[in-house]
Amino acid sequence: MNARVSYAVVSVMLCGSVASCGRDAEPTPAIVISVARVISIAISPRNVATILGGQVQMHAALVADDAIVDRAVEWSTSSNVVSISATGVVTGLRAGSAVITARAHADPAVADTTVVTVFLPGIAPPI
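Given the sequence above, the corresponding structure tokens read:
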């Protein structure tokens, strides 16, 4: 199993007062480590259509258990029907369909997919 941790929060505490550790506490160093994780990612818009040469801006919303998580997304496409930029702009290159994937940079195992269909100009997509 491969694991990748992009961010960890480390807090160092030294108990040395009755208020912070209790009446009979001796000064004791303690290190607390918490790992920030990406919980989920969601692409919008979902299952879109565009024409040859048309563009669609995709968005990815990340849910994380900490505000400091790396919120960068890596975009990819399943085929040469479309291209997708690093900022999520999909461009229709030929007629057909492609699966678009947004993968969380902080945890590549967290991803979402949607489908983009490209139609030739003048040909209406099926309803």
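The domain at 40-119 is CATH 2.60.40.1080 (Immunoglobulin-like). Try to locate this feature in the token string yourself.
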